[in-house]
Amino acid sequence: MSDQKVLLLAGGSGSIGSAIARQALAHGWKVALHGRTPEKVTALVTGLSYLGTVDGFIADVWEEEAAESLIAEVVEQYGRLDAVIDCVSTGPLGITGLLPETAPETFGDFLNVSVGWVERLALASYGFLATQGGTFIALVSDAGIYAAARQSLIGAARAGTIGFIRNFAVEAARDGIRAHALSTSFVEGSDSAIRRGSERMARAARKAGLGLPSADDIAPLALFLCSDGASKITGQVMSVNGGMNA
Ligand SMILES: NC(=O)c1ccc[n+]([C@@H]2O[C@H](COP(=O)([O-])OP(=O)(O)OC[C@H]3O[C@@H](n4cnc5c(N)ncnc54)[C@H](OP(=O)(O)O)[C@@H]3O)[C@@H](O)[C@H]2O)c1
């Protein structure tokens, strides 16, 4: 087995995942970069490959056994798996806003990604992460931790992810697996920020005393939590939000 550690970034072709991929490669990780859209994944992998070993993996999370197949392909390719960071999102459309303005029909998919997909991914990767002690991180939203107007649906779904991670962390620790929920709120430069529009971003920026984070500000904490320096830390819910919520 090669000494080089392997990180799977599920939803790695998105704004936050691609920033984590870049920094992980710079820190010597091999990166398995997953996304749904082949062209997007290929372009990203091509652009990052000068930094180290990075390969693309395509899977739609709604396909049957998507998590099992994805994990099997990654382990087949590299022979090991040391960390999984889940950044898959169906996007905020229809699940944020005052309750009468939300689109309840989109809530089922978001809830399924937040709880069902995260659970399936953790279960599929469990045996491989347990082999040498690995880390499982789910990206969540501050809406799952802090109450605010316009966040009922996203808050409910992300609270579900957090509940899963905290309980999972306690039992998985006996197999050497660490698990965390890494949260954020408004992220400068992300696709989600563009969808939210400049006025909402400006309002959020005024609330965040340290300034809103970019995806590059989130990646270092994710990688620290996957490192040997974090070997006694598990079950934590940490937010990189520039001081917007505390
Ligand atoms: N950006 C923010 O402002 C913000 C704020 C709070 C929390 N978060 C959380 O942080 C995480 C990452 O956010 P992000 O901004 O990086 O998201 P993003 O840019 O929208 O990326 C989402 C990722 O999920 C993938 N995906 C979506 N539907 C999929 C499906 N059916 N099957 C497989 N993959 C699918 C996308 O692939 P394709 O592009 O190919 O569809 C992409 O790789 C998410 O959990 C999000 O909720 C983000």
TrEMBL record:
<protein>
    <submittedName>
        <fullName>Oxidoreductase</fullName>
    </submittedName>
</protein>
<dbReference type="InterPro" id="IPR002347">
    <property type="entry name" value="SDR_fam"/>
</dbReference>
<dbReference type="InterPro" id="IPR036291">
    <property type="entry name" value="NAD(P)-bd_dom_sf"/>
</dbReference>
<keyword id="KW-0560">Oxidoreductase</keyword>
<dbReference type="GO" id="GO:0016491">
    <property type="term" value="F:oxidoreductase activity"/>
</dbReference>
<comment type="similarity">
    <text>Belongs to the short-chain dehydrogenases/reductases (SDR) family.</text>
</comment>
<dbReference type="Pfam" id="PF13561">
    <property type="entry name" value="adh_short_C2"/>
</dbReference>
